[in-house]
Amino acid sequence: MTRQTSELLQNLWDDSHAATLDEPGRLLYRSNLLGSDKRITNFGGGNTSAKVIAKDPLTGQDTRVLWVKGSGGDVGTMKLDGFSTLYQDKLDALRNLYRGDQFEDEMVAYLPHCTFNLNPRASSIDTPLHAYVPQAHVDHMHPDAIIAIAAAADGQALTKEIFGDDIGWLPWKRPGYELGLWLAEFCEKNPQARGVILGSHGLFTWADTASDCYAITLEIINQAISWLDGKTQGKEAFGGARYTPLAKDRRQQLAEQLMPEIRGLVSGGQYQVGHFDDSPAVLEFVCSVNMPELAALGTSCPDHFLRTKIRPLIVGFDPSVSEEPSASKEPSAGEQLSTSHVDTVVQSLPTSLDQYRKDYAAYYERCKHSDSPPMRDANPVVYLVPGIGMFTFAKDKATARISAEFYTNAINVMREASAVSRYCGLPEQEAFDIEYWLLEEAKLQRMPRPRSLAGRVALVTGGAGGIGSATAQRLLSDGACVMLADIDEELLAQTSQRLAERYGSDVVRQVVMDVTSEDAVQAAFATTIREFGGLDILVSNAGIASSALIEDTSLDLWNMNMDILSTGYFLVSREAFKLFKRQACGGAVVFIASKNALAASAGASAYCTAKASEVHLARCLALEGAGSGIRVNVVNPDAVLQGSKIWSGEWLQQRAKAYGKGIDEMQEHYLERSLLKRPVLPEDIAEATCFLVSDVSAKSTGNILNVDAGNVQSFTR
Ligand SMILES: NC(=O)c1ccc[n+]([C@@H]2O[C@H](COP(=O)([O-])OP(=O)(O)OC[C@H]3O[C@@H](n4cnc5c(N)ncnc54)[C@H](O)[C@@H]3O)[C@@H](O)[C@H]2O)c1
Ligand SMILES: [Zn+2]
Fold first, then answer.
1. Given pLDDT bands bounded at 50, 70 and 90, which one contains residue 326?
2. Ligand nearest to the Cα of 306, by number
3. Which numbered atom of ligand 1 lies nearest the CA of 640?
4. Domains of the chain
């Protein structure tokens, strides 16, 4: 693949809009504009600042205040409360307290003492990098095009060649107080400079106004993009292609064949969610001649590095021999089915992961200091698979997705740097010192404890319906990722959108699936694997209800109940079992059956019989699954009228008729019928289900939990 000319960044600054804003407002405006383009900075990367004159709340005097992006958040989406505010004169006074490079971390504790106006936002470690630049406005960005130069072996010479005296160069230095002083000294000695490139890291630019600062940042990045374009036109990236990427559907199939096994192998300490990326930039890299050599060097920018670990794992898959999977070959009599290449790769995964973990432990041992925090999870985050793409695995979906974005940034950097020079990763000890930095560890320690279902993936059938959507919501609120599967496309889209708005689009996916179709069920599981890497929880809930005396029960009606409620539950459980066993890290299944699975009801024999078969299927599966840590339990609802489609249709009319009641009397009727005299809500079923899929019920399988406000007929015995 030869290169295309890159598009340049457009200046989006609107003077008339900016004129309506105050100085902090313009800083926010600039930050959001910068963060809106990933070519300018990666997610969560970089920071911006403005030194603003404000009234001191204590003295009423004008005072200089540094507004600088605080710890956490992303410049693209941050709000004003994302900035920390500090007295500039106090920051200046800190210079007198500084004891030198080896004590720079202690300066972090002084920053809260400089807080202006009781702003609760914690200051970022990068604060000194802004404080001592004399200009009022400072941007620090991580643009791929600039990092490519910053990570080139002769980055300093290239900077000079491209920017002359406009942009200076500072060698790699971990962000902190010392680097802040380096920047101050640089500005003093180079008053004409408009910015500086930090080796292996990124860009600093400054100006007297917000709009100038924004314009300069864009101009410098554009200059780098154009220069790189000129140098790389017509050249092949990464030493050319070694493989041709496989076709899209084949890539997806193979991702489905590999991800659950990887997930199982890395989910020992903590459940991991997967992300699959086969974008053109990723495919070009994983199929290239130089990929193994470049990947081994690790990433450069500390942000990239922190999210993607010291280096990726390269999965030993050869796309040129993969086209004939063994499953498609019919073995002739007496002939053993030969192991396909994919099977061999799957079998080799434990060994390659083991090796990765050993290498990681060795890196930890080589680089650790006497006060380093203990070694963290040694599993890779990024998996590169020639011909197929990239998997990332992390403690939640957003982290996995963002890690993929970061590695894509790293790929862009490696492509450009290696085309114009020799690409250099961050030196190993520097990488370690960032990864195991005590300040980084303190940040990790401050993070809230993961929620009880963090890292887990659930599939909810009938997920668009009353009980299904309430269950999905409950699982999401405990930190699980949820695949909603339903036959009702419109309602599914609505439910999915509603849940995504509340819990974030990373954690909710939807698939149209008819539980009675073997193909549709298999396809839905495949989609779940592609979206999240595997599955831990199945809530089999899709259903209908029907009512007819036995002599009026047509074979079609009988079969419909059996198909959806009995066969449907069988089909989804079978796929879940296959997947759970591939992952080999247990699993939890809950069947939403019915009070009628235990209690006979006149005029609904097809429904009751099908529901009874669900209960027995669950018990058989509990028996079969126990050895593999797979638990199967049943929740029996009764009369959950609210939110239920079942109760909005014919069933309600038929039941009302059967009891000789009006439709609006039915809720009251069921309430009165219950022992506890209370209505049963979808949330009650969701709560019971959540209990049975979570670790608090780890010792329960083959159980039935009635959630029916009490009904003597369904007491189990
Ligand atoms: N609501 C109650 O009172 C009650 C009582 C006992 C049992 N249940 C059981 O609870 C489950 C959920 O019921 P609900 O009250 O939420 O009803 P609901 O109608 O609101 O939800 C059921 C969902 O299943 C979907 N569905 C139907 N056929 C499907 C198919 N072939 N493939 C995929 N999806 C399909 C529907 O589109 C719907 O979204 C059902 O199994 C039901 O039998 C409900
Ligand atoms: Zn940075």
1. very low
2. 2
3. 3
4. 15-232 (3.40.225.10), 248-323+341-446 (3.40.225), 457-642+681-707 (3.40.50.720)
Please state the rounded mean pLDDT for residues 134-156.
96
Ligand whose nearest atom lies closest to the CA of 202? 2
Q: Which residues line ligand 1 (CB under 6 A)?
A: 461-462, 464-468, 486-488, 491, 513-516, 541-545, 564, 568, 592, 594, 637-640, 644-647
- Which residues participate in catalysis according to the annotation? 607
H or E stretch including 84?
A: strand 83-87
Provide the percentage of residues in the chain whose pLDDT is more than 70. Answer: 97
**CA of residue 304 to ligand 2 center, whole Å:** 10
Instruction: Find, among 319, 141, 303, the residue nearest to 213 by Cα.
Output: 141
Query: Environment class of residue 312 by beta-carbon count within 10 Å: exposed (0-12), middle (13-18) or buried (19+)?
Result: buried
pTM: 0.93
Q: Average of pLDDT values for 596-617?
A: 96
Supply 25's token pair: 């407002």
User: What's the maximum distance between 2 C-alpha atoms anywhere in the chain?
Assistant: 97
CA of 74 to the centre of ligand 2 (A): 12
Of 499, 706, 698, nearest in space to 593 by CA = 706
State the burial class of residue 337 (Cβ atoms within 10 Å of its Cβ: 0-12, 13-18, 19+). Answer: exposed
For 71, counting Cβ atoms within 10 Å of its Cβ (0-12 exposed, 13-18 middle, 19+ buried), the class is middle
Q: Which of 461, 486, 669 to mutate to test the pocket of ligand 1 (most atoms within 8 A of CB)?
A: 486
For residue 688, the ligand closest to its alpha carbon is 1
Here the tokens at position 608 are 């009751």
